[in-house]
Amino acid sequence: MGRTKMDTDHEMTDSPTLTIAGLDEQKSMSLLELNQLIGSLIMTPATQRQWVTAELSDVSPRRNSHCYMELIQKDDGGVQLAKARAVIWGNLYPTLSRKFEAATGQAFATGLKVMVCVSASMHPVYGLSLVITDINPAYTMGDHLRRRREIIARLASEGILECNRSLQLSDVPQRIAVISAPQAAGYGDFVNQILHNPYRLLFKPKLFPATMQGTQTAQSIIRALDEIAAQQDEWDCVVIIRGGGATSDLQGFEDYDLAANICNFPLPVIVGIGHERDTTLLDYVAYKPVKTPTAAAEWLIAVGRSALDRLNERSQRILQIVSERIAAQKEQLSYYSGILPMAPLNASRKHAERLNKAILILTDISGRRIAPAVRALDIAVSNLRTSAQNAVVRQKDRITAKEQLLSALSPQSVLNRGFSITRANGITVTDASALTPGTQIETTLAKGTITSVIN
Amino acid sequence: MEATPVKNLSYKDAMAELEQILAKMQSDNCDIDSLAAYTRRATELITECRSRLTATDEELRTILAQLDK
Questions:
Q1: B46 → closest Cβ in A314, A322, A329
Q2: Is there a single domain that holds both residue A250 and residue A269?
Q3: Which of A201, A317, A329 is opposite residue B54, by nearest beta carbon?
Q4: Nearest by CB to A202, which of B12, B19, B55?
Q5: Are A206 and A121 part of one and the same domain?
């Protein structure tokens, strides 16, 4: 270190050979010694455990580690008057941030105005920083948020706070007017991401350059918005993006005119400014606030993808309906062709059945009507037969009686009783005087005949 | 009725017509004859919408080339 200093000194002289001789005379100290000296001067009781008010900036809490930040002070016009590096050691940060959050209802973060107890500390390597050992949560929120709240309240009272948010985003936002710093990494990331999306969604981004930091930010963005508004039919939406950076650089976005412009803008405005942890006024008025330029790209891709999904779902459904309908028709056809050969057979069988039934009915009817008549007839016939037989028997009996009487009266019966019949010349002789001697007579007895001659 | 060529429809109108056709196709009184016509029209609409959403290689190259300028 000392040598470098000497070399520099001797470049101004004409005799470099003398420098070695001068080395002993030149008093110097090492940087370490100097830093230690500064430290000892700074770290006096006056700079230890002092309560100071300041605004937080660039608060970067790390998990299980120290929380680094910057403390800033600005005048009423927003010009920075003072700035110092500060740290809360890791062993204290969880306790302090919890205490602060519990009391104020918000996280210990950039933009807040705080009252902290600090001790100035000079590290030989890391330089001056303020070590925060306590915090007074009663000291309320910082200027940033108070001013932001005032702007939001004004926009609300003017009735325009929700205007951009109430716009209808086109079904698929593909034509995208991008407001960004032209060479910004965030812009490159955004364009790269939407143009190389895995679904091959078509996006047409166009850059409308603007200054995205410093005091010109708001006016520059408003000019870009005006340019887009003049050709609003060409675009589906506006994307305002800026990559991260020191948080104190985001103050340019905390502007009433810019916020009111976005509220009244005819196209939906998507805002992706800063890192994950940053919030700006624009997040409260934009159609869609996202954390980062990358997140803006992801959101647009997601919107496009859901449109693509809807389309694919419809085409699946059509395929399903068509195949179901055709299958149903085929089934019906095959049913018809299946029953076709059977149809005539079934028909004739059905007719035969009907015929049989008719016959049965007919038979039944005839059975019920004719049978009694036939039975009556049968009875009549049988009666007829009986009475005929009876009549015959009766006639027979009568004849038999007559026969018996007749036989009792017959000549044979008389003969049997000992009488005889005398015939002369075949004539019955009933008068003996009528007979002359020599006449041959014939006597009939019951049995046999006697021939005699009259004397 | 002669249908509007799909190229002349806005994406929104194309989607609305697609929904209508789907509803008709799903209704019970959709006969098999209309089914073919509906399917043809729906396919046209879907193809058109999809082609508007997604980029061809050629289109992508053109856009990326413009960015490099």
A1: A314
A2: yes
A3: A201
A4: B55
A5: no
Q: Where does a domain end: A94, A120, A141? A: A141
Tell me the pTM.
0.54
Distance from CA of B27 to the nearest CA of A (A): 10
Question: pLDDT digit string (tens) for A231-259?
Answer: 999 999 999 999 865 444 676 788 999 99
CB atoms inside a 10 Å sphere around CB A225: 24
A101 and A155 share one domain: no
Considering the domain architecture, whether residues A205 and A244 belong to the same structural domain is answered as yes
Task: Please identify, among A279, A307, A335, the residue that sits at the C-terminal boundary of a domain.
Answer: A307
Dihedral class, residue A371 (left if φ above 0, else alpha if ψ from -120 to 50, else beta): alpha
CA dihedral A209→A210→A212→A215, nearest 10 degrees, is 160
Nearest Cα neighbor of A147 from A256, A226, A270, A286 is A256
Q: Count CB atoms within 10 A of the CB of residue A8.
A: 9
For testing contact with chain B, the best of A180, A195, A196, A315 (most B CBs within 10 A): A315
Nearest CA distance, A332 vs chain B (angstrom)? 12
Which member of B12, B22, B63 has the closest CB to residue A314? B22
Say yes or no: A243 and A282 in one domain: yes
The reply to whether residue A318 touches residue B63, judged by beta carbons under 8 angstroms, is: no
Contact at 8 Å (CB) between A59 and A69? yes
Residue A5 lies in a domain: no
pLDDT along chain B (69 residues), means of 10: 82 89 83 83 89 79 71
Q: Which of A258, A55, A255 is nearest to A143 (CA)?
A: A55
Beta pairing partners, A117? A51, A134
Which chain A positions have a beta carbon within 8 Å of B64's beta carbon? 195
What residue numbers bound the domain in which A436 lies? 414-453
User: Is B4 an interface residue toward A (CB < 8 Å)?
Assistant: no
A179 located within any domain = yes
pLDDT, tens only, A86-134? 999 999 999 998 888 776 656 788 877 889 999 999 999 988 999 999 9
Domain count, chain A: 3
Residue A256 falls inside a structural domain: yes
Q: Look at residue A338 and tell me if it is in a domain.
A: no
- Residue reference for tokens 């079904």: A171
- Residue of chain A with shortest Cα separation from B27: A321
Separation of alpha carbons A353 and A359, rounded Å: 10
Residues from chain A contacting residue B18 (CB–CB below 8 Å): 314
Rounded Cα distance between B43 and A25, Å, is: 94
Calpha distance A90→A102 (Å, rounded): 19
The interface predicted TM-score (ipTM) is: 0.76
